[in-house]
Write a structure and sequence with these properties.
The protein is α+β, with helices and mostly antiparallel strands and 153 residues long. It is 13% helix and 25% strand. It starts with a helix and ends with a strand.
Length: 153
């Protein structure tokens, strides 16, 4: 009887590990693009609902968060649909997908480029922000037509 219980527990643990490993890691936004002092965080990609850094915003980070201790952002974002604009202002709580008008790349201390893609899964036209790029109105046909986000060195 004891052997069966141990075997059943091992099977449940193995099934749980398989389920957990099937969940893809994604960069997860957890705040708007400015801190309480009104200055931009370092090492993030910001997307705003309106042109000129207006309206609601949300921040995405890559490789461990703003200061290396916040968040778990470790990979690209193949689909912006589940993410919403988080700060107060026009567009708050709306999906980021096909609603972003302005973007910035505050990766000033690392050589990390931000790519904003027209289609999900990194397809179609791309708009690239270089490290330290100030907020720009999205060009290359991506104004309010953005579906995925990736970073590259």
């Amino acid at each position: 009887m004891r052997v069966r219980l141990i075997s059943a527990a091992a099977a449940v643990a193995t099934a749980g590990a398989v389920l957990l490993s099937a969940v893809p890691a994604q960069a997860v936004p957890t705040w708007g693009c400015f801190n309480a002092a009104g200055t931009s965080y370092d090492s993030i990609t910001c997307l705003w609902f309106n042109s000129g850094q207006q309206g609601s915003s949300t921040a995405f980070w890559f490789n461990g968060g703003v200061n290396g201790t916040e968040g778990t952002g470790t990979s690209n974002v193949p689909n912006l649909l589940p993410y919403t604009f988080m700060s107060s202002g026009a567009g708050q709580n709306q999906s980021v997908k096909n609603h972003a008008a302005t973007a910035s790349n505050t990766y000033s201390t690392a050589v990390v480029k931000t790519n904003i893609w027209y289609n999900s899964n990194y397809g179609g036209a791309v708009y690239q922000l270089l490290p330290g790029d100030a907020p720009y109105r999205l060009g290359n046909g991506l104004y309010n037509q953005d579906a995925s986000l990736s970073w590259q060195y």
